[in-house]
Amino acid sequence: FPLQVENDFGLLKKSLKHYFGYDSFRPGQEEIIQATLQNQDVLVLMPTGGGKSLCFQLPALLKPGLTIVVSPLIALMQDQVQLLQDNGIAATFLNSSLSGAQARERTQDVVSGKIKLLYMAPERLLSDESLFSFLPQVKESVGISAFAVDEAHCVSEWGHDFRPEYRQLSHLRQQYPDVPVIALTATATERVREDIMRQLQLKEPFVHIGSFNRPNLYYEVRPKNRNSYREIVEQIRESQGSGIIYCLSRKKVEETASKLQLDGIRAVPYHAGMSTEDRAENQSRFIRDDVQVIVATVAFGMGINKPDVRFVIHHDLPRNIEGYYQESGRAGRDSEAAICTLYYSAGDIKTIEFLIGTKVDPTTGAPLEEEQRIANQQLRRVINYAEATECRRIIQLGYFGESFPGNCDGCDNCRYPKPVENWTVEAQKFLSCIGRFAQRDQSYGAGYTIDVLRGSKEKRILLNHHDKLTTYGIGKDHSKDEWRNLARSLLHQGFLEETTDGYPVLKLNDLSWEVLRGQRQVMIAIAPTRRDVSKATLQT
Ligand code: ADP
Ligand code: ZN
Q1: Could you tell me which residue ranges the Helicase ATP-binding domain spans (predicted)?
Q2: Facing residues of 360 across strands?
Q3: What is the whole-number distance in angstroms between the Cα of residue 195 and the centre of ligand 1?
C-alpha cells in the first residue's frame, strides 16, 4: 500500500505539471487529493488564495466520470471555468445566464462525456425540473466522480454568508450516497465546520485545516474620532496603491466617497442600493486601476480577485470576526505587504446593537431571537478584538481554533506593546469566584462575576445569596473596566473558557486550575485608559 501511494504521488506530481504547469503542491493539497482519489469525503479549510480549487480539479481530471462543482456566485463561476478552458481543461458551467439552446448544448456535452468539470449554482442543481432527470442520466452515462461544494460555509447560519439554498444540498447525499463529497471553505470556525459536516452529511471525512495566518498583512485598530477622516486621507495619499474602505451603511458609503472625491482622491462608491450597472462599472474601474479607492458596504468583495489591494480600512466596526478576517483579507493577495486598519468607537457598538434588534421575522414581525443572540455574541467578540492588548493574530486565529504564538511583529499591539503587569492574584480571585459558582452548578458571564467581586448590592446577587460567597467584595480595589480587561485577557490567553448557556458564561479549564494552584503567573497588558499604574510595572 505505501508503495502504491508513492507511485501515485509521482503520478500526481506529473499530472500537476501536465495539467496546471505547477512544479509542487501547496501545503495540504497532495493529502487532500489522495483522499479524494480514494473516494473519501473531504472537508478543506484553507484561507482564500490557499489553492483550494486544485484539490477537486486535479482529481476530477484523474478520475473517470464528471465532477459537479457547486458554487454560489455566477461571476466567479464564469471566471473559474474560463481559466480552466484556457488551460485546455474540459470544464463548463450551467446557470441562469445561458439561453435554453446553450444550456441544452452543454448538457449534451456533459452526458456524452466531453466534460470533466461542471460548475453549477445550487438552486439550479436542486430545483430545475430538467436537471432532475439530468443528474440520473449523467450518473448512468458517464458517472459522477464527486460533488465539490465550494464556499461550503454558505450552509451555515454561523458563517458570514448563509444561503438557504445550500441547505438543500443534503438531498444530493441522500440521492447519491456513494458519490464522495468534497466541501471547501475559507471559513474555519469550529461551529461552521461542524455545521458543514452535519448539513452535508459528510461520512468520516478527511479534514484538512490550513493555517489562516496572512503574514503579509499588518493589522491595527485606531480610535475613531474627529481626526479619523484626515488620517484616512493621509493613509490613502501615502499608500498610492489601491484600497477598499468598508462602511456599515449605504449613506456612509456615499458620503465618504463624495468627500474623498472633493479631496482629490479617485474614489467610487459600491453598495447594494445602486443599480447593477453602476455597481459593475465601479467595480471594474477599481479592478483596472482607473480609480484608487472603492468605498463599499460588505456587499463588495465576494468573488472579487484583485491581488494588489494595498490597504483595507474599516471605517465602522464589522459585525463579526469572521467577516473582518474575510474583508481585511482582500488586501495583499499578491503576498506583498498591505495594511488593515479598523476604526473603533463605542458609538459603533450601539449602532450594530440597534441593527441586531431589527432582525425580525419578515412575515410575523416577531424578533428572530436565535439570530439576534448569535449576532450579539459575535459582536462581543469583535469588541474584544478591537479593545485587545494582545497580538491581534492570537485573537483572529484563535477565533478559527488556531493557536498562534504571538509576537507577530505585524500588528499594532506587537509593534507598540502596552505595559504588562503581573495580575496573578487578581486572576486567582476572579477564577475562584467562577469556581464558587461552579460548586453550586451555576455559571455566569464576566459582568455578573465582576459585580460579585466588587461587592455589588444588585438584587439578583442578593437573591442568589452570592453576597455570602467568600469571593464577594474581594475585588473592590479595581474598577469594572480593569476587571473586564483581565477577563478578556484570561480568555485570550486560554486561562478561561467561554461557552454559551443562552448567553455567554465563563468556565474554568485545566489552565485555570494551574493559575489557582499558583503554578502559573498571569501577565496582562494594561488597557490604555488606565491611569493608576500604582502596581509594579514590567515594561516589555
Ligand atoms: P482558493 O480557492 O483557495 O482561494 P485558488 O484555488 O483560487 O485559491 O488558488 C489561488 C492561486 O494559487 C491560483 O492562482 C492558483 O492557480 C494558484 N495555485 C494553486 N495551487 C498551486 C500550486 N500547487 N502551485 C502554484 N500555484 C498554485
Ligand atoms: Zn501581533
Answers
A1: 33-206
A2: 367
A3: 26
Indicate the pLDDT class of residue 126, thresholds 50, 70 and 90.
Answer: low
Residue 511 CA to residue 517 CA, distance in Å, equals 10
H helical segments located in 40-180 = 53-62, 74-86, 100-111, 122-127, 129-141, 164-167, 170-175
| ipTM of the prediction | 0.97
**501 neighbors 438 (Cβ within 8 angstroms):** no
The phi, psi pair for 143, rounded to 5°, reads 90, 150
If you measure from the C-alpha of residue 414 to the centroid of ligand 2, how many angstroms do you get, rounded to a whole number?
A: 4
Beta pairing partners, 499: 505
Output the pLDDT for position 259. Answer: 98
* CB of 54 shorter than 6 A to ligand 1: yes
**To test the ligand 1 pocket, which listed residue (12, 14, 17, 26) has its Cβ within 8 A of the most ligand atoms?**
26
Q: Which range among 123-127, 168-172, 535-539 shows the weakest confidence by mean pLDDT?
A: 535-539
Q: Which ligand is nearest to the CA of 410?
A: 2
The cell for 136 is 440520473
Determine how many CB atoms are found less than 10 A away from the CB of residue 446: 23
Which ligand approaches the C-alpha of residue 15 most closely?
Answer: 1
Q: How far apart are CA 336 and CA 310, in angstroms?
A: 8
Look at ligand 1, atom 16, and give the residue with the nearest C-alpha: 51
CB atoms < 10 A from the CB of 362, how many?
6
472/482 Cα distance (integer angstroms): 17
Tell me the pLDDT tens digit for each residue of 258-302: 999 999 999 999 999 999 999 999 999 999 999 999 999 988 876
Q: Average pLDDT of 37-47?
A: 95
Residue nearest (by alpha carbon) to ligand 1 atom 2: 52
Are the CB atoms for 306 and 333 separated by under 8 Å?
A: yes
Whether residue 270 contacts residue 294, with contact meaning beta carbons closer than 8 Å, is answered with yes
Ligand 1 pocket, residue 53 CB under 6 Å: yes
Alpha helices in 88-161, H assignment, sequence order: 100-111, 122-127, 129-141
Q: Best substitution site from 25, 53, 69 to test ligand 1's pocket, by max atoms within 8 Å of Cβ?
A: 53
Q: What tens digit of pLDDT does each residue of 321-375 get?
A: 988 998 999 999 888 999 999 999 878 888 888 888 888 888 888 888 888 888 8
**What residues have CB less than 8 Å from 250, skipping those under 6 apart?**
271, 272, 273, 297
Question: What letter does residue 155 receive in the DSSP assignment?
Answer: G
Ligand 1 within 6 A of 45 CB?
no
Name every residue whose Cβ is closer than 8 Å to that of residue 393 and which is 6 or more positions away in sequence: 213, 219, 404, 406, 408, 410, 411
Mutate to test the pocket of ligand 1, among 18, 20, 33, 54 (most ligand atoms within 8 A of CB): 54
Q: Output the nine-digit C-alpha cell for 272.
A: 447594494
Q: In terms of pTM, does the model score above 0.95?
A: no
* 40 HSE (CA, 13 A, CB side): 16
User: Distance between alpha carbon 517 and the CA centroid of its chain, in Å?
Assistant: 37
Q: Closest ligand 1 atom to the C-alpha of 150? A: 2
Ligand 1 center from residue 348 Cα (angstroms): 37
d(CA 25, CA 15): 11
